[in-house]
Design a protein that fits this description.
alpha/beta; three-stranded mixed sheet; globular
Amino acid sequence: MSRRVLLLSCLLSWCVAGLAAEPVRNVVLVTLDGVRVQEMFGGADIAVMKHLARGAPLEGNKTYQRYWAASAEERRMRVMPFLWGTLLKQHAWIAGDPAKNSHVEVTNRFHTSYPGYAEILTGRAHDDVIIDNKEQRIPASTVLEFARRELKLPQSAVAVFSSWDLTNSFAEHEPGTITVNAGFAPYATKDAGLRALSEAQGEMVAWDGSRFDYVTERFALDYLKRERPRLTYILLGDTDELAHDGRYELLLQSLRHADHFLEELWTQLQSMPQYRDNTLLIVTADHGRGKTPEYWGSHNEELEAAKNIWLVVAAPGDVRRGEIEGGPTLYQTQIAATIAQAFGLDFNQRYPEAGKPIALRGAP
């Protein structure tokens, strides 16, 4: 073999190897409805517990006994041990802790769920048409639809699993573009246990229009295993429902459950070659809540603190871990473009009014 042929052969082999090593990116987005920065970064809020105790000593309070500790670091570990003990130490970073001069904010003025989800999925607020949680079709294409169209994916490759039935209105601008299982929708499966769960979910109604997160989680994990979608969105809502009901102990318990689900999800993703070390995971909230004890369960346009949210990002190639300190304010509007960027797509070219993507390798 001549030197020239050998050189060309080696060059071709190097190029092919380089192409083979190029990762096939996937994205999983998880939202925990209405979780405050206070609980996310500080665990159980002593001011809220005192307010709800109405003068009774906290020492005999079950919430206090289970979740209280001297430091914020200890308290949040008691509520979300996987997130703070494994995910953020080994794989991810989190922004939004005001105590660290880190801020993540919504831009819509209503600080409620539908406006927040619309902002997440379209990269911008729609304050002129989306003013509350009224059922209406989202007025613009979502990043879920955008990714499916640009990547020429089958409908099954972009999937949404949500506890809230209104998700059918805001997950897609054109109905039938992506796979959506929300509210009490049946789940098609050959698994006898999941089939029974699907049939029984309507009998386990706790809130109007929302099923328990456990049901949503089981369906989502099964779908990921069977269909292996490229883009998955999982919306969990128990935390918001319990906050509105004023059930603080159950809210913390629900956060602990959500943490367990994140552990299950991460473990499953890391066990599958398609997803292992090849998936962008984003976890965030649609809105915050009131800062003071009297308004811890409330959120609306009158409560300025409800604009404050948090953002967890685990991205291949991003070496940052734990809490982000300082830095520019991040916005909910940036999530859509960040999802698109993970697939090598430019969301802003098609929707220039959307927020710009967050840098996943450098400082956000």
